[in-house]
Amino acid sequence: MATEDLPSDFDIVILGTGLAESVVAAACSRVGQRVLHLDRRSYYAANWASFTFNGLLTWIQEQNEEPKPEEVRDWSGLTEEGEELIHLSQADSASITNLQVFSYASEEEEEEEAANTTEEEKAADEEVVKESSETESADSKEEEEEKEGAGEEEEQANQAEGEEPEADQPHPSSPGQSEPSREKISYAQLVKEGRRFNIDLVSKLMFSRGSLVDLLIKSNVSRYAEFKNVTRILTYRHGNIEQVPCSRADVFASRQLSVVEKRKLMRFLTSCVEETEEQTAYHGRPYLEFLRDQQLGDNLQHFLLHSIAMVAEDTPTEEGLASTRHFLRSLGRYGNTPFLFPVYGLGEIPQCFCRMSAVFGGIYCLRHSVHCLIVDRDANRCKAVIDSRGQRISCSHVVMETSYLDRSKVATPPRFLSRAVLITDSSVLPSESNQQISMVTVPPEGGSPAVKMVELSSSSMTCIPGTYLVHLTCRSVGSAHQDLSPLVTRMFRTTESQEEDRRPSVLWSLYFNMADGMASQVEGQPLPSNVHICHGPDSALGHEDAVQQAASIFQRILPEEEFCPPAPNPEDIVYDGDNSSTGEDRGDMGQDDGQNPEQNQNQENPDPEQNQNQENRNQNQENPDPEQNQNQENRNQNQENPDQEQNQNQGNPELQRVGPEESPSSS
Amino acid sequence: MAIRELKVCLLGDTGVGKSSIVCRFVQDHFDHNISPTIGASFLTKTVPCGNELHKFLIWDTAGQERFHSLAPMYYRGSAAAVIVYDITKLDSFQTLKKWVKELKEHGPEDIVVAIAGNKNDLGDIREVPMKEAKEFAESIAAIFIETSARNAVNVEELFQKISKQIPPLQNAEVESNDSFKLTRPPNPTTRRCC
């Protein structure tokens, strides 16, 4: 496993493995470009990453470390006449702030565990990173103010900070953890089973007719991952959690709605699919006003505004309707809600695109960065980069995540997201199945922003049986803790309280702020025309922003090429047995060219001389109907949905028809 | 017979013959100048095993191992892993332990592990004694076999051994596994409302 040098000539160098960068990498490799994809981090997916519990603890430590002073080295020996250097930032110290950790799980070792592991204990000791906030002065002041008011939770947290909190609680929990909760899970157990967690830094869902799902299917990247339906949509209202009826069956089965409301809701949902004159009349006026005038009543208005459109009260009607339609279009494609969640967490998705890029020749190197760009002064184009080992690598385009830009030249992101991650011991709304995946909308209340909450069960492979992983996200007003902890203390138990308190207990929680990608501004920065910037995750629930960024960067780099055409099916790759290429060092499965000329749609290459992958290009053959086989194989799987009653799926034809019908495959 | 899809991931240093083994198994083909994999996400081959058909989905590293940058998603859901070394290169055997560790860290807990000492047609320049490799495999409860992708020795056998070690499917597993792959959605079974 000795490290060798990187090749020194590429078409495209990509820095950062976040979603947008990874999609660009896959798209470029797919059409024959030589891609070098680097990330200075030791993990894939940048701020889109998912971590095991232990991996997350390490990440937290890293965030709290002082950034190392950037070493200034003289690279002038590597430049030529007429070239100048743009130095890049060697660390991302701006996108994550206000990190705070609270542990409520018992720290007592269970006997059997204490007996057989010393390693875990060590790990547990190291991870006493409890409550560590960033050094920003304004924030610490705010925090103090907050401590006065926050009461119970803070006390508890401070207690947890000590070495022996809650030691008075012996927990005779058995290892059979699949029983539904209330059996205490210790901190040691979280660490011991830490690798079974996949904790996302961003919390998003995939609209089943959103652009990410479309792209995954179109490119065949979807075959690298599996997905689950979000099984229910909940809303927090008057201190209670209620289920939002969103399929026809839900509507009719709903106990909260009266018969009249049910009819009104169905009529409204059916009517808003198409633009009507009545709707046009409300353009520019708040959606809430439009809803009010529909005489829907408080219940329905709440559901429609906060849980279906998921917009603010002052959002204009046309925007509210567009969101509503987006929601309705995605309904019933795979399941009973419009949303999908990738098994093992969202961090899988960028990795899947990276794999697609690698499969088409992209070269991957983590823990590796670029120190500077070499710019041709006259052409104002980047000709090459100098990597962290001092190698000059030439390229015709550079794509990079915002955090690689020299911080002194980028305005601090004016807006942040507030995030909280909780590990809890039961669901916010227990039901027959303990494997629900729930989207919970919390409307804004008295100055606190609207919160999107996603509760994942162990079936999503993101947490261990007997626990739930709860992600909270909102646009930040203050620090993440200020924004979200009041809601957390209302909805969850963070202290030992009476037995009749049925709220889920928080075992462990993390708060942090992440820069809102949408708000990051790099405009003022004069960059060479062939350097393309991707910003980090935005605050929206879906992934439209990242996909759109990737598509537009690809369009700028390769305007003539198709964006992510389908990769061939494994069954369709044909060997013809006379191959003479030299890539032995890649150590991959060798294979020879595809043969059917009319299927080789990817033979066009803007720069064939430079293209080392040339001999393999016509392997990128198109399968005339790539989805067909898979569709057959997976059709049954798609229809399986044990968590929902069978009749729900079949019983909502009306809402399923609300969206445009799917054209029956490509036949 | 029920077809069961089994993901198998290949591990091992660059150049030990991971791809050649798969190529021999799937295509019964060997190429001295093997080319980098372009465009193959995974290769498949179906073999009978008891009352089941095992459809192996064999994933290669796509070169991501070259700079130690294999993504955790590579291991997800693997039923088995084949760690390949080259019997003529001691280095490639010494790094086995790293791959085993990597697998323990990122791989599924119940994964079947097989260790394949490839290039056993080059016995006269052997650097790794078979006994030593076998003992190591036993110490981690892994399948052990020496193969030659070039001469088609023991490649079928390797996968047969894996097949035999795959635990029979539990009914409960089938029911609880409601995750799915995204494809063009099934034709909507629209029914008229009453």
Written account of the structure:
The complex is a heterodimer of chains A (667) and B (194). By secondary structure, chain A is of the alpha+beta class. Chain A has a domain at 244-341: Guanine Nucleotide Dissociation Inhibitor, domain 1. In chain A, the strands form five sheets. Chain A has an eight-stranded mixed beta sheet with strand order 5-21-17-20-19-18-9-10, sandwiched between helices. In chain A, strands 12-2-1-16-22 form a five-stranded parallel beta sheet, with helices on one face. In chain A, strands 4-13-14-15 form a four-stranded antiparallel beta sheet, with no helix packed on it. Chain A is globular, with a radius of gyration of 26 Å. Residues 111-181 and 576-667 of chain A have low confidence and may be disordered. By secondary structure, chain B is of the alpha/beta class. Helices cover 27% and strands 24% of the residues of chain B. Chain B has a six-stranded mixed beta sheet with strand order 2-3-1-4-5-6, with helices on both faces. Chain B is globular and about 50 Å long. The relative contact order of chain B is 0.18. At the A-B interface, α8, β8, α15, β12 and α18 of A face α1, β2 and α3 of B.
The largest sheet of chain A is:
8 strands, mixed
* Overall average pLDDT of chain A: 78
Alpha-carbon distance between the two ends of chain A:
48 Å
* Radius of gyration of chain A using CA atoms only: 26 Å
Q: Largest beta sheet of chain A: what is the strand line-up?
A: 5-21-17-20-19-18-9-10
The first-to-last residue Cα distance of chain B is 40 Å
Largest β-sheet summary of chain B: 6 strands, mixed
Number of strands of chain A: 22
InterPro entries (chain A): FAD/NAD-bd_sf, GDP_dissociation_inhibitor, Rab_escort, RAE1_2_domI_C
Biased composition (Low complexity) (chain A): 592-654
Biased composition (Basic and acidic residues) (chain A): 119-133
Subcellular location (chain A): Cytoplasm, Cytosol
